[in-house]
Design goal:
The chain starts with a strand and ends with a helix. A hairpin with a 5-residue loop joins strand 1 and strand 2. It has 2 domains: about 150 residues, 3-Layer(aba) Sandwich (Ribosomal Protein L4, Chain: A), CATH 3.40.1370.10; about 50 residues, no CATH class. Helices cover about 35% and strands about 15% of the residues.
Length: about 210
């Protein structure tokens, strides 16, 4: 069974806990992780790109010159795709890039990502994380004492903690998420994952 140390805000080890094999002891499945990341990024795309076809470009209603006896090629509109300023052929049009990934695969990918973070020593568990009021300076000090200052950090809380969120939102590379909102992309894209002990228990309840 995998184990991990629980630290306090001063980076002192306060206890050692055992983690469930079903969430933090899985083998890394790179193809599955890749599939989950591609699915997440595809679902984030707005798909609002668009180019104008010849029917959308302004002008070009009149035939530029008569059909025959000019010595030039025949044309019906100056907004043909062959002309400068004309329409675009087969250009991108608004579309929906999102697609569904099987729930079992998504859950397995997230648990695999958490297992990979644990094996690489990039998972940090802290006993508690609460601020009486929003203070970015205190959050920077906390990250510095934990030795993760300068790294991109994903902070996982058990539920919505407004003061924690407000304290971290102006720090580059730091993001706060609830345990129930975790996804494979956010776990992998950050250098370190900082989880409170309470959030860890929620992860075990939801994803275990």
């Amino acid at each position: 069974m995998p184990e991990i140390e629980v630290r306090d805000i001063n980076n002192r080890v306060v206890e050692k806990i055992t983690l469930p094999e079903s969430v933090f002891g899985l083998e890394v499945n790179r193809p599955l992780l890749h599939q989950a990341v591609v699915n997440y990024l595809a679902n984030q795309r707005q798909g609002t790109h668009a180019t104008k076809t010849r029917g959308m470009v302004r002008g070009g209603g009149r035939k530029p010159w008569r059909q025959k006896h000019t010595g030039r090629a025949r044309h019906g509109s100056i907004r043909s795709p062959l002309w400068r300023g004309g329409g675009v052929v087969f250009g991108p049009q608004p579309r929906d890039y999102s697609y569904e990934m099987p729930k079992k695969q998504k859950r397995l990918a997230l648990k695999t990502a958490l297992s990979a973070k644990l094996k690489d020593g990039e998972l940090i568990v802290i006993d508690r994380l609460d601020f009486e009021r929003p203070r970015t300076k205190e959050m920077v000090s906390l990250l510095s004492s934990l030795g993760v200052n300068g790294h991109s950090v994903l902070i996982v809380t058990p539920d919505k903690q407004e003061n924690v969120y407000l304290s971290a939102r102006n720090i580059p590379g730091v993001k706060v998420m609830r345990a129930t909102d975790l996804n494979t992309y956010e776990v992998l894209v950050h250098d370190r994952v900082l989880i409170t002990k309470e959030a860890l228990q929620k992860i075990q309840e939801v994803w275990g």
